[in-house]
Design brief:
alpha/beta, eight-stranded parallel beta sheet, seven-stranded mixed beta sheet, binds dihydropyrimidine-2,4(1H,3H)-dione, binds zinc ion
Length: about 450
Amino acid sequence: MSILLKGGTVVSAKARRQVDVRIDGEKIVEMGTNLTAAGSTVEDVSGYFLLPGFIDAHTHLELNNGKGSMGTADNFYTGSKAAVAKGTTTVIDMATPSKGSSLQDCLKAWDHLAQGNSSCDYTYHMSIIEWNPSIKAEIKEMIDVGITSFKMYMAYDNLRTKDAEIFEAMREIRKYQAMLGVHCENGDMVNEMIAQFVAEGKLSPHYHPLTRPDSVEAEAVERYLMIADLAGLPVNIVHLSTKRSLEAVKRARACNQKVYVETCPQYLVLDDHLYDGPGFEGAKYVCSPPLRRICDQDALWDGVINGQVNTISTDHCSFNFNEQKTIGKNDFSKIPNGMPGVETRPELIYTYGVTTGKISLERMIGLLSEDIAKQFALYPQKGIIQVDSDADIVIWDPNTAGVISATTQLQNVDYTPYDGMQTKGHARSVYLRGQKVVEHGQVIAERQGKFIFRKISKTH
Ligand code: DUC
Ligand code: ZN
Ligand code: ZN
């Protein structure tokens, strides 16, 4: 039985228009004004926005952080359910191998975690944490099975590779016009500064951001972009968080380099004063890069507004405050890095971006859905409401108000960094490939997600 969504306003990154939408099976099959029921079940969506399902291109739903085998608080089941409840219909999770493991084995492991558990559609960025001839040979194998984006690290001793290895990986990735995203922080400098503070007995969460100042990120961004220029590869910078890094991006773009920039809600709506909270509270915000100063936040908003920032994803990586973050009670460097956020991104960006007048709803759609789909080869299957696209549709009610709370969240973690923040608007219902999976904000059908095979994107 087909479904007719009647009377809503369909929004894309470019425009909005009042138009009816017919769904049949998994797809959008017809759009137009005053469509007749023609045997469809009619849902009156007047007064609501119809938004393309949001895509979160940066999650760690399942991460073992390599420090004492600590796994994330969320897993694919809980994280994806929290995501879809608030309108995120696709995640691109960071598949992260252990040292010595092949990319194929990592892919199998991630499929095992996601298949039958995910409540939203999913794919992965494959992380390259070491470089050798067999990993090199696996790049093409990954692309052949639909994994067309990769991730590398310039910090974290258990994950990072050398510059020369990043360069070689880039040249291999370039052969297939695939996408690379890199975590840009100067790992050597971070290690030095951690060692120094620890030696001085400066052990509280207050010191975490001081080990990773803006120059640590900006230097790595500049170096990464220079390496990418040498390799001739368009690249993505994940979780860019500082004004100085954005300036490095501007310089590279002025030299005609193609650079994509992702930032995250935490860098737009939170700031580094939170590390000075009472007791051990600051540990809740220990993530890398760390929360930044207000001047960085302002620069990032400017970048979001003027298009220097391309996408907003979350870097969702949840660790419980009790029993996980507390491992670093006497030494901030032992606090597992990461914060939850896959659930809160749409409401935060709508509230603090759209309703404040900083950005239009159209721009939000670009940042959270359409431009992500284009960058990561999901478009036009995802990222747009148009005929033949997957019927991933968020029925967005702009006239609601809420408060983010750890007690009501679906994320399986004992705190939220946004606790107490007011929100406006929310996903009233959500269709995932034509199936209503969320109604009145409640997940009514879970574990309906499937793997999305990606071909090489034509946009870069
Ligand atoms: N940063 C985090 O804070 N957690 C996960 C990985 C990352 O880069
Ligand atoms: Zn990272
Ligand atoms: Zn990450």
